[in-house]
Every structure is written in C-alpha cells, then in structure tokens.
From TrEMBL, chain A:
GO terms for biological process: intracellular protein transport; vesicle-mediated transport. It comes from the Eukaryota. The keyword Protein transport applies. GO terms for cellular component: AP-3 adaptor complex; endomembrane system. It comes from Cyprinus carpio carpio. It holds the Pfam family AP3B1_C. Belongs to the adaptor complexes large subunit family. This is AP-3 complex subunit beta.
From TrEMBL, chain B:
It is a peripheral membrane protein. It is found in: Golgi apparatus; Cytoplasmic vesicle membrane. Keywords: Cytoplasmic vesicle, Golgi apparatus, Membrane, Protein transport, Transport. The keyword GTP-binding does not apply. Transmembrane segments: none annotated. Part of the AP-3 complex, an adaptor-related complex which is not clathrin-associated. The complex is associated with the Golgi region as well as more peripheral structures. It facilitates the budding of vesicles from the Golgi membrane and may be directly involved in trafficking to lysosomes. Its main location: Golgi. This is AP-3 complex subunit mu-1. GO terms for biological process: intracellular protein transport; vesicle-mediated transport. Residues 190-431 form the MHD domain.
Length: 947, 432
C-alpha cells in the first residue's frame, strides 16, 4: 500500500518534470532533492530529470546537477545523455558556467567518459579564469580516483598548475599533488619559494594542505636544525624577522640553516594568528617538526589559545599538547594553569588535561599539582576521579620526593566511600608497592583487611597478587586470605580466580604445611571451572608445583619460576609512543596508522642540492620578509593589494628543463641519507624513531629470509601438525602439553615483537607479497590463463570476505568472449564474482578483483571459470595467514592490557609476520582459544603467560 | 569494445566523503554525499559511541570504524557526523563542520533541526557550494550569499509565484579577487562602522575566594556597512596589553607585527575582526566575590546552602545579569530556599540550581539561603558542587583595553563610527 502511494507520488513528480512550466519543474526538483536528503531512493526518476539538464533556469539546472552527481553511477547509460550538454557548457563565455560544468562532469563517476574528462581537464587547466583552473585542479583528484591509470597524464597537468601564480589555484593543486603523486617531490623544487611566499594569501583550507605538504618536503631537503653543535643565542628571537646581517651572523656558527628552511619558518609564523584552528595546528606541527628547539616556544601561546574554542577542537589540540609535553615540559609549564580542569568539561577533555598536568609535573611544581589533584579526586565524575588516582600514581613513581606523600594519600583514599575510587587506589598502590617492596608490609596488611569490602574484581585481583608476591612479609594473613577465597572461589570473576590460583601456588611453595590442602582444593575447583583459561592455568600450575613422575625437571625450578623477582611496572604516559606520528594528523589522534598516512621522513644527513630550488633571475627571498604596507597603500591596484609576492612570480616560467637531472641527483642523496649516518642525531625522538624503524626493518628482513614462500608453507603445515597432535593429546589426557605449548610460545615470543591493537581494528598490512599464484595455466585454459594474488586489504564486498586480485590474460590468437565465474559453486563458500568481461583481445590481460568468504577455514574454494565456449574448474587454496586480519596495537595499550607485568620484554608482533605456529594455534578453534576475528583471545593468551 | 571491470581506487584522498545530521534523539534527518553513496548504516558506530557516552558532550569527536573514520561535532543539539576514509588533519574537518553550522545560523537565523528541514533545498545548495569532492570550496559567508541568496519571507513568496530562483547567476566577484571575503559594488546611503569589544573572564576561584586561575578572552565583533572598497586602520591606546591575537583573514599580519595596528579591508556586514587573550600572568580583575557555605549533614538526609554575592573590582560600573548556577550532586532531591533578590529554580531532573539575581546592588547584597533535602539512606555526597557565575558589565573592558581611533582610506565619504565595550563572565567557576 505504502509502496503504491510512493509510486503515485513519483508519477506525479514525473508529470511535473515533463510539464512545460518552469515553476512546476523547479518545484518537482526541490521535492526530489528533499527525497535525496532524507536518503530515499529517487533513481527511477532519472530519465525525467536528465532531460532538464539543459534548462535555462540556473536554479533548476543546479538541482539537476545535484541529482545527476548522486545517481549517475547507478544509471550510467542514461547519464551519458547529459554529457554533450556539459561539453557545450565548457565553452561558455561565462566562467561560472564553465567551472560548474567541469565540476559536474568530473563528478559523474562513469568510467566510459574518462577520455572526455581528461581532455576537459587539460583544457580547463589553461583557462584564463583562475576559478576554472581551480576547478580543474579539483577535477584531477576525481579523475584519478575514477581511473588511476591516467596518473602520468594527470601529473603533467599538476606540473603545469603548480606553476600557476594565482593564490586561488595553489591550495587545490597541492591537494591534487598530495593525492596523485605525493612522492614526486621533484615537482615542488621550482615552486617551493613561490608557495612559501604565496602562503599568507592563500585561502585557509589551502593553507593547511600546503603547510602539511611543505613539512614533508622540508624533512627531505634540509638538514636537521636539532644538532648539538648548533649553538643558538637564546635571546635571538629576532631571528624571525631575519634580515640579511643576521643571516650572516648565523653563518659563522657551526650549523647554518638553509635560507629556504628559514623562509618557510618565517612565512608560516604569521599564520599562527589565523582564526582557523586547523591552520594554527598545521603551523604548530610544522614548527614542531622543523624548527630549531629554541624557537618552538612561539607556538605554545597559539595552541593554548585554541583551548578556548569548541569542545572538539579542544580535544584534538589537547591530544597534541599531551604528546608535545612529554618531550618538552618547558614549553607548556608556564601555562600549566590553562590545563586546570573545570567541573563542566567533558570527561575526555578532563582526562586529557589530567594527562598533560601529569606530564608537566616536576620537583618544583608537584605540590601545586597534587593540591589540584586533591580537588579532582573528589569529583562527582567517577571515571575522572579514577583517572586522577592513576595520575597521582604516575607522579609518585616519576618524582621520588613525593612518593611517600602520594602513597599515604592513596592509603587514605582506601577509606573512601566510593567503590571505584577505592578500587583504583588499590590498583595504583599495588604498582607503587612493587617499585619499593619490603618496607610496606603494614600497607599490605591494611589492604588485606579491606579485602572483604571490596567488590571490584580488578582491585581484588590486585590485593591477591600482592599477598602472593609478598607472602613472606605477611606470613599470617596470606593463608587466611586464601582460606576466604576458597569459600568464594566459584562466584568470583575470572581475573580474581586466576590470581587466587597464583596465590595458592605461591603459598604452597613457601608455606606448604598450612596451605597444602587449601591449594589442592582450589586446584580442584579450578580444574572444572567453566573458563578454559582457568582450567588451563590450573593444570599448568598443578604440573609445575606438585611433583610427580611426569612433570620431570621443571618442577624443581617451580619456586624459582613463580617467585622470581618481578620488575616493577613502569607507569608512563599513554601518549608516550604517539610521537611516531606526525602531529595534527588523524593517525596521531587515533594512535594508529590511518589509511593513506604518509610517514614523515628523517632529516637527511647531508642536505640535497640546494640549487634545485633556485628559480632563474634574481633571488626573490630576501625582499619577501620586508615589505610593509605604507598608509598610502590604496593607491595600488586591487589585485596586488594583499599579496606582496607578485615580483618573484614572473621567474617561474623558465628553468623546468634542468629539472630532470636535478631531481635525479636529489633522489640519490635522499637514498644516501637513509643510511645509518644520522644516528648521531642529537634529537631523541628522531633517533629513537629511526632505531625502532631499523629494528622493524631487520626483523622484517629476517622474517623474509626465513620464510620464502615454499618453505613457509611447509613450516606452517609442520607446526600445525605438531599443535594438532598436542591438542589431541590434550583432550585425551591433559598431560603437560600445555607446558610444552607454553615453553614453545615463550621461545617464539622471545624472538618476536608484538604489536596488537586492543580494539582489534584492521590495519593496513606491513607487507603485501607481489607474487601471484597460478589459478589456471594457459595450456589447460585453452589460451586463457589466470593468476591470483591476495591483496591483504579489507574486502570491499563484505567483512568476512578475503579480497583477491585476479589477472586474466589471453595468450591465444583469438579474442575470448564473456569471461565470468559460473553461478554454481561446488563448495559452500560465498563468492563475490567479478563482473563478466565481455571480450578479451589476444595478448591482452585484465585485472579484476573478487571476494571469497572462506568461512575462516583453509578449505579450498572451488569454482568454474567460464568463457563463452568453455568451463574450467579452478580452486584457490588460502594459506592460513591470508585469512587473518592484520591489527596493530600501541605499546601503551598493550602494557595497559597486561595485568601483572612480569615479562618485561617488549613484545611486538605484527600479525602479518606472525610465526606460523602461533597463527595456526590462534586460528585453530580446537584448542579452544577462539579465533582472532571475533575476540580478544590473543591478548588472553598473552595474559595466560602471566604466571 | 571490452568493458573492463575497473577496480575503483577506494582510498582516494577525499577529505570529507559524506555528512549526516543526527538530532539528539538519534534520528538521522539529512544526508549528503560528495562521492559515492555511503550507507547510513555506518552511523551505527556513531550511535554505539553515543550510547556509551551518556551525555552528548562526552561523545568522542573521532570514532574509528573498520573502513571509515567518523569525525563529529555537537552543536545546537545536532550532531554533524562526517565520514572520512583516509588520513586528514582532524581539525580541518572539525573546523569545517563548525563553519557549516555557522553558515546555517547565518542563513536561517538559527541552526536547528526544524530550520534545516524547512530549508532543505538551500541547505543542499549550500553544501554543494561549500565542498567540492570533499575539499572546501567557498566557505566565506559573503561569497556564499552571492551564490545562494538567503531566504526571506518576501522572496520565498515571490519565488513560489513567479518560479524565480535563489541562485545567483554570476560568479561572485570576491571569489576572483585577492580579497575573497568582500563583494564588489557595495553601496550604502548611511555609511557606518561599529565595533564591539567583548571580554570574557575565565576564572577558577577556590573555597576561600583566592584566584586559582584567571584570564581574559576578548573578541572584537564588527558590523561594517561601508560603500566601495574602504581600507580601515584600527589602533589601540594600549596594544601591548594583548598577549596573543588571532585575526580574520582580512587583517594584514605584517602591519600588526611592525606597528601594532589593525589594517584591513572589511567584509561587508557582520564579522569577527579579531580575538585576543590576556593571560593569567597579568593581574586579572575579578569583579565579584562569592561567599558560600554548602554543607550536607551526616544524618537526617538534608543539607544547608548559603550564598552571598558582592562586588569586588567593578571599576565603578554596575554588574548586571548576575546568575549563579549550581550542579547539585545526584542525591539532592529538592531545595527549599529563600532569595533576598531575584528568583531561584531547582530542576530535580537535571539537578541544576539556577539563581537569577539580575542587577547587583552594592548596598544590599543578594543572598540565597535555605535547606536542601537529600535522598534518604544515600550516603552524603563527597564533594560540594562548584558554582558557575554569569554576569555582564556594560561600558567596560575589564582588561583596560581602549580603541584609540579608526581611520579610513580609499573612499571619500565620512563614515559614522562607534565603539562599544562589554565585559562578561566566561567560564567563571567558584569551587566549594
């Protein structure tokens, strides 16, 4: 019925569109736009709407454009009808019409018009109107996303537009550059100085893009200003208004900043005063990544100013300040009070401010900060109060003078009425005690007394661990706590149970007389627990501590293993490792690499050739800083009004001929700079970054060497076999298989670093193999050959699908027609087929993508590849690794996940490079560990190793 | 000719892919896509985060989903949720979304669900002009108004009858010049320029009334209606006061750097010329003091409240629009109070006590006194609630900033000029 009504209404709209009255048509279009805005489907009106594309009424036309852009993709054939109108409009004398025609033409995502788009873009890029040229720059990106094969031609257009003198075009063309060819840094050389000089006059959004691009550029072209031997005069802030003499003075010093480097810093500085928060942030990150350390302080004020802005802006800015404040406390210390929390702040803002205050804490200001924290602990926002307690813990470990004060304060909080506050205090006290054990047995006793009243499982687990770890300090209380736990064991949370088992084991080893029976009892309870983690742990502990003939050598060392001195956890900022990302980026905000993130390169050790940026004729740089508008300004013509850089633009035309040679030389020096030479770099961040990178690289190489495709598979199957046999045994007789597994895993872990994200979001793979495998040989395929390759990208057809790339080639001497995958699939897998290929010419090949849902199994997907005449049965057998999703997790998240930090080695493991044994182990459901796609068990298996 | 299955490069660098507008109740009432359509089911991740956050203010601005990133802002009870696919500076998107909201406000008087729904066609036309392929195109209000005329009652009536349009037919002149914020050919019979210096005091005072933290945030709002292409210069008596400034793009940075004057060609109409900051280092005058005593009793589930407000450093001016807001702890059920001046209101649902005092009379200080009744059996609240103060002082810039003169070049006529000062409380909080 409803459907019927809807149809009626559409009929009625159709009628209106076909009427001769403009006003009716307009009314109809307005209603259609309303439908689109609500997300309703109006695609069936396409034929009626498209007729009006040539209308004289501008508003009607615009609304038709809106409609076209929305539906052209779905109705490609009909959309073609409108193309000629746009082509005609591209020649219109009115620049607005030319521009909007290009905008719409390039927004219609119909592959068949790619050549027309290419032609129009080329034409528009030489248009007299800068507005049309700007539109052309935008169109470049659209065409590139529609057909990446046009890249080379588009780069030519970009090159041309980069030379454009109009401020209107600059932002848009750099945007196109960033998307199409961000690696073609050689295109920037000649335009570098022009871009720096134009920057102030470019519109705000363009400024952001240009600044980000120039940051990357500068990091490849200039040497680091952070060298130790660079002695800067601290009070030479005037260096910014840099006149020539000053530069000469600088030259006598050991480090000489490239004048172009200085130009960039000087020309971006005024933008710190922009009203646009994105611009201010962009300049701040530029200074952070490029400016000499002593000049950094000028960005502080501007960043603090942004804290007055909207809640969302505050959030991002605070995140960035948090990262900065770890490395340079001094920058923000004078503004400490700006980070004081207000009761009206949103929780995430409060937590970030707290983070920053903690980072800023030092001997001098700690008393002020602690006083401030006292107010926060009482906050009604309990999540925030808990975070404050964590922060106090961090201050206590970092500043030894206040450790005792903090500890006492936290002990006082134990009598707080609020459960979360008490629980959090317990957890933090536990960590603090670990840093300085022994002398605090009275605190442990006090916590034991509290134990009955605490219900938060994390806190209970913490107390139990403390009891076990320091049971020698509290010999009387610990067995009693165990006795109580034996009573309530079955109703506890998992982490509490695990810690009870630990406590029992430790007491058994130190005080077996009193606790032998209790331990036996608890181990028996654990043996039949519902959770496999607890069952596993119980079996493991039993084998370890209760000597019997099978457990062999290990139980001799049980005491040494369990009672080994554990290093104290390091309480550090959650923002510790964020500096691996460029500030101000989405990746920094998320603390994980976002799609399309371009890493900032390290400074080159030796500066590449500077002369590449020289534009012929006189050096323009020197005048740039000086011009000051006199009061007689209005005498000048409008165009030159705001821009003070017209002079140097004329020189851009020449000099592109030498570009090729210079670019190649610069590339060479770039690669040189990648060598280890710069490890003596004084700056911590860059050296540590490069260190970790190096580590990663060597690791990767090792892996690659170890696992050549073939041997990889073999090892995999071999290991799978072992693990499977383990598990069979395990089910049958649960002997010490887990122990073996444990030892096996520890061996694995020792050699690997581990990097897993808590939320288990897919990340982009570190390594995608280029090799493809044979699907169909040309002999069997009667000329048709097919190869496949796993792209390791999230599949666009469905979350559970694995994305595959298929290359089909025709090696016969006649064209093959109608290549497709047959509808019927012999096995149960769900396959997303590629669109049928109508015709494949001899010697031609085509690449298509498809998705297969392997149901998380390694069972081969069998299907029929058909041509017009033949059918070929083919099958794709996935390796287990291809079914897994790569995930990344920051070190901070990772340590957070650790309850008891006993294995100190930083485990970093990238799932793409996961050792086969482990991945098999994880993917294998029979072991009961669940599988990686669904839950956090990977983490659990790590915790599992926390004895 | 073979039709190839071209794999679309899915991770194209599109800044803003789609925009969804969602109201406070969780209804998605408008969607706009600048590229291929993204199913609105992507918003489920947002709804999930929204639910977890309880308060709309606590929704994280950046949300990660398996294939997209959602960056959202919350304004005027509307969530603007944008869908991002690749790396982009998050502030870029946030700033843009706020710009969109401001444009709606500018066009329709207010930015609310009903006005957006009523003007859906204009909203769509605006969004189309503001972003091209996900990259901001025209965000300057002066330009937009030339491209798409704001609705007025008269015009909408005329339009329905004659079928004429809201869309401008020529390219706005500003778009092409180096002064994109000003349209050409402006003409007024009365040429006038008004400047409002508005200062807000942000402060945290502790229990005893000592200043924990205080700073002044100022803005200069301008309303300039001048014909032609005027070039204005605004100078201050005491520009050194200004600690940190940010400007409308029309202001020439270099003049400010060298001469500390503000030189600019103004946009036509209302705009914010600059904002500035006077930091805690300088002594900030606190115009009022608050004597308060809020206590909760261990037994009897009740509490007492006693607040008195008095003038402190008002520079001889009257404090007006005085309002005290208290976010009470959850256990406070009702308040039985007596105000010597003004009215009070306690909302038992939001737990907010508002005492609207009005003008502060130094001879007879306003006082609010009485008892609070608490939920019986609940433990007494740990923390006393802090007080938020709102106030207004006319004809005073609390920092002492003074405009010296305004000069105009480039045009012959004599404009009418005016400057107004006002001081307000910003985030002014008294801890108890």
């Amino acid at each position: 019925m409803l459907n019927h009504c809807f149809l009626c209404r559409n009929e009625d709209l159709k009628e209106m569109l076909e009427s001769s009255k403009e006003s009716l048509k307009l009314e109809a279009m307005k209603r259609i736009v309303g439908l689109i805005a609500k997300g309703k489907n109006a695609s069936e009106l396409f034929p009626a709407v498209v007729k009006n594309v040539a209308s004289k009424n501008i508003e009607l036309k615009k609304l038709v454009y809106v409609y076209l852009v929305r539906y052209a993709e779905e109705q490609q054939d009909l959309a073609l009808l409108s193309i000629s109108t746009f082509q005609r409009a591209l020649k219109d004398p009115n620049q607005l019409i030319r521009a909007s025609a290009l905008r719409v033409l390039s927004s219609i995502r119909v592959p068949i018009i790619v050549p027309i788009m290419m032609l129009s873009i080329k034409e528009a890029s030489t248009d007299l109107s800068p507005y049309v040229r700007k539109t052309a720059a935008h169109a470049i990106q659209k065409l590139y996303s529609l057909d990446p094969d046009q890249k080379e031609h588009l780069i030519e257009v970009i090159e041309k537009l980069l030379k454009d003198k109009s401020t209107l075009v600059a932002g848009s063309v750099v945007m196109a550059f960033e998307e199409v060819c961000p690696d073609r840094i050689d295109l920037i050389h000649k335009n570098y100085r022009k871009l720096c000089n134009l920057l102030v006059d470019v519109e705000e959004w363009g400024q952001v893009v240009i600044i980000h691009m120039l940051t990357r550029y500068a990091r490849t072209q200039f040497v680091s200003p952070w060298r130790e031997d660079a002695v800067f005069d601290e009070n030479s802030e005037k260096a910014f208004y840099d006149s020539e003499e000053e530069r000469r003075v600088e030259q006598s010093k050991p480090y000489i900043m490239d004048p172009d480097h200085r130009l960039l810093l000087r020309n971006t500085k005024p933008l710190l005063q922009s009203r646009n928060t994105a611009v201010v942030m962009a300049v701040s990150q530029l200074y952070w990544h490029l400016a000499p350390t002593h000049e950094l302080s000028i960005i502080t004020k501007s960043l603090v100013r942004l804290l007055r802005s909207h809640r969302e802006v505050q959030y991002i800015v605070l995140q960035n300040i948090a990262t900065m404040s770890i490395q340079r406390k001094g920058m923000f210390e004078p503004f400490m009070k700006s980070f004081y929390v207000r009761s009206t702040d949103a929780t995430h803002i409060k937590t970030l401010k707290l983070e920053i205050l903690t980072n800023l804490a030092n001997e001098a200001n700690i008393s002020t900060i602690l006083r401030e924290f006292q107010t926060y602990v009482k906050s009604q926002d309990k999540a925030f109060a808990a975070a404050t307690i964590q922060a106090i813990g961090r201050c206590a470990t970092n500043i030894s003078e206040v450790t005792d004060t903090c500890l006492n304060g936290l002990v006082l909080l134990l009598s707080n009425r609020d459960e979360t506050v008490v629980a959090e205090s317990v957890v933090v006290i536990k960590k603090l005690l670990q840093t300085q054990p022994s002398q605090h047995s009275d605190i442990i006793k006090h916590m034991a007394k509290l134990f009955d009243n605490i219900t938060v499982s994390m806190a209970r687990a913490s107390i139990l661990w403390l009891m076990g770890e320091y049971c020698e300090h509290v010999p009387k209380i610990a067995p009693d706590v165990l006795r109580k736990m034996a009573k309530t064991f079955t109703s506890e949370e998992d982490i509490v149970k695990l810690q009870t088992v630990n406590l029992a084991a430790k007491l058994y080893l130190t005080n077996s007389k009193q606790t032998k029976l209790l331990t036996q009892y608890i181990l028996n309870l654990g043996k039949y627990d519902q959770s496999y983690d607890i069952r596993d742990r119980t079996r493991f502990i039993r084998q370890l501590i209760v000597p019997n003939e099978k457990s062999g050598a290990l139980s001799k060392y049980a005491r040494r293993i369990l009672m080994a001195p554990k290093p104290a956890p390091v309480l550090q900022s959650a923002f510790k490792d964020r500096d691996r990302f460029q500030l101000g980026t989405l990746s920094h905000s998320l603390n994980s690499q976002a799609n399309g993130y371009l890493e900032l390169s390290d400074w080159p050790a030796v500066a590449p050739d500077q002369s590449v940026r020289i534009v012929e004729v006189v050096e323009p740089v020197k005048e740039a800083g000086a011009p000051v508008f006199g009061k007689s300004k209005p005498g000048k013509s409008d165009e030159k009004f705001y821009s003070d850089s017209e002079e140097e633009e004329e020189e851009e035309e020449e000099g592109s001929s030498s570009e090729d040679s210079s670019s190649s030389s610069s590339e060479e020096s770039e690669s040189e700079s990648e060598s280890e030479e710069n490890s003596d770099d004084s700056n911590k961040s860059s050296s540590s970054q490069s260190d970790s990178e190096k580590k990663k690289k060597t690791l990767k190489n090792k892996k690659l060497q170890q696992q050549k495709p073939d041997s990889k598979d073999r090892t995999k199957f071999f290991l799978m076999h072992i693990v499977l046999s383990f598990s069979n045994q395990f089910v049958a007789s649960c002997r010490c298989s887990l122990l073996c597994l444990y030892v096996f895993l520890v061996c694995q872990f020792d050699t690997i670093s581990w990097d897993v994200r808590v939320s288990l979001q897919a990340s982009s793979p570190v390594f995608v193999p280029e090799t493809s495998r044979e699907l169909l040989h040309r002999m069997t395929g009667k000329g048709l050959s097919a190869q496949y390759r796993f792209t390791r990208q999230p599949c666009i057809y469905g979350n559970s699908m694995v994305s595959l790339q298929l290359t089909l080639s025709n090696s016969s001497d006649q064209a093959l027609e109608n290549i497709h995958i047959s509808e019927k699939s012999s096995t149960g897998q769900n396959i997303h087929r590629f669109n049928a290929i109508e015709r494949l010419e001899p010697q031609a090949s085509v690449t298509v993508s498809m998705g297969v849902d392997f149901n998380d199994s390694t069972q081969a997907a069998n299907f029929q590849l058909c041509t017009k005449e033949d059918e070929f049965s083919v099958s794709i057998q996935p390796a287990v690794g291809e079914l897994l999703l790569p995930i990344t997790m920051s070190e901070a998240d990772f340590t957070k996940e650790q309850i008891y930090n006993k294995i100190t080695k930083t485990l970093k493991l990238n799932l793409n490079e996961i050792p086969c044994g482990l991945s098999v182990w994880l993917a294998n459901d029979r072991l009961g560990t669940g599988n990686l796609f669904k839950n956090n068990n990977l983490l659990k298996c790590y915790k599992y190793l926390n004895i | 000719m073979p039709v190839l299955d071209i794999t679309l490069k899915d991770n194209a660098l599109i800044m803003i892919h789609s925009l969804f507008l969602i109201n406070n109740a969780g209804d998605l009432f408008l969607e706009k896509h600048w590229k291929s359509v993204i199913s609105r089911s992507v918003c489920d991740y947002f709804f999930e985060a929204r639910e977890k956050a309880v308060e709309p203010d606590n929704v994280p601005p950046v949300i990660r989903t398996p294939h997209h990133y959602l960056i959202n802002i919350y304004r005027e009870k509307i969530f603007f949720v944008s869908v991002i696919q690749t790396e982009v500076p998050p502030l870029f998107v946030i700033e843009f979304l706020h710009r969109v909201a401001e444009t709606f406000q500018d066009y329709f008087g207010e930015c609310s669900e009903s006005t957006i729904k009523d003007n859906v066609v204009i909203v769509y036309e605006l969004l189309e002009e503001m972003l091209d392929n996900g990259f901001p195109l025209a965000t300057e209000s002066n330009i937009l108004k030339e491209l798409i005329r704001p609705p007025t009652i008269l015009r909408s009536m005329v339009n329905t009858i004659t079928g004429s349009s809201n869309v401008g037919e020529t390219l706005p002149t500003g778009q092409l010049s180096t002064i994109p914020w000003r349209r050409a050919g402006v003409k007024y019979t009365n040429n006038e320029a008004y400047f409002d210096v508005v200062e807000e005091i942000d402060a945290i005072l502790d229990k005893s009334g000592t200043t924990v933290f205080a700073e002044i945030q100022g803005v200069i709002d301008a309303c300039v209606k001048l014909s032609g292409m005027p070039d204005l210069t605004l100078s201050f008596m005491n520009p050194r006061l200004l600690d940190d400034v940010s400007f409308h793009p029309c202001v020439r940075y270099k003049r400010w750097e060298s001469e500390r004057v503000i030189s600019f060609v103004p946009p036509d109409g209302n705009f914010q010329l600059m904002s500035y900051h006077i930091s805690a280092q300088n002594l900030v005058a606190i115009p009022v003091y608050v004597k308060q005593n809020i206590s909760f009793f261990e037994t009897g589930s009740s509490g007492r409240l006693d607040i008195t407000v008095g003038p402190k450093q008002t520079m001889g001016k009257t404090v007006e629009g005085l309002v005290v807001t208290v976010h009470m702890p959850k256990v406070v059920l009702s308040a039985n109070l007596n105000a010597t001046q003004g009215t009070y209101n306690y909302d038992p649902v939001t737990k907010i006590l508002v005492w609207d005092i009005g003008k502060l009379n130094p001879q007879k200080l306003p006082n609010l006194k009485g008892s609070l009744s608490l939920q019986s059996g609940a433990p007494k609240p740990e923390e006393n609630p802090s007080l938020n103060i709102d106030l207004k002082i006319q004809q005073l810039a609390i920092s002492g900033l003074k405009v010296n003169r305004l000069d105009m070049y480039g045009e012959k006529y004599k404009p009418f000029k005016g400057v107004k000062y006002v001081t307000k409380a910003g985030k002014f909080q008294v801890r108890t």
